[in-house]
Amino acid sequence: MNPNALFRGVGMVLLNLAWFSAFAATGTDLETLGTNQQVADRVAKLESRSRIGVVQNRLVPRNWRLELGGNYGPVASGDAYLNSQYLSGELGLHINSTFSLGVRYSTVFNSLTTEGKQRYERARGVIANQPGAEATIPAIDYPESMILGIVNWYMTHGKINLFDLQVVQLDLYSLAGYGQATLYSGPASVWTAGGGLVFWLNRHLSSRFELRYENYADQPIRGTTRNLNLIVGTFGMGVLF
Questions:
Q1: pTM
Q2: Nearest Cα to 158, choosing from 90, 48, 58?
Q3: Is the pLDDT of residue 17 over 60?
């Protein structure tokens, strides 16, 4: 056998073994990014001006907890001659972090809109200047109070960094409710549906922004019902027990 050919064969085998060993070691490093100590050493060498925080668990557990709250807000899309604002109190029971039940009682504050005031002032002037004359004024029926049973579904949750002071948990929720309104003309059934955003400021304090649709029938003229489609927007605070 030719010695040169033998040396060349042995050299090729050794070269292939060396290449395969290096590839295997490199492949292992790429898959594992190195040992834990190697990763720690690499991270320690990084100079970053960004601060990163990760929060994985819920900050406020809500299994079988009571929440007592209040909210206030205006009504839109109702009677053109009437302004209404709701002042409400609510007692809720959180079954878990996904569902809660509640009872809400609202007192309603009413006043005439600018158009309503003008209509009434015009009618008053006609009667004062023309004794015996007839003047047309708008027929108005208004809510005085309302009680609703509410079901809340907290469908999406997350957390935000509040001005670098603390991490605040939040939930996006939907709601549905049914109850009775006390109108100037008498009682009326009412139902509502909508949604809101609640911030759990800590384990005992919450803040809510809510927008919902509300429907009931009033009687501005006795014996004649009118279907009202209202939009109610409220802001509220609550205390968890």
A1: 0.74
A2: 58
A3: no
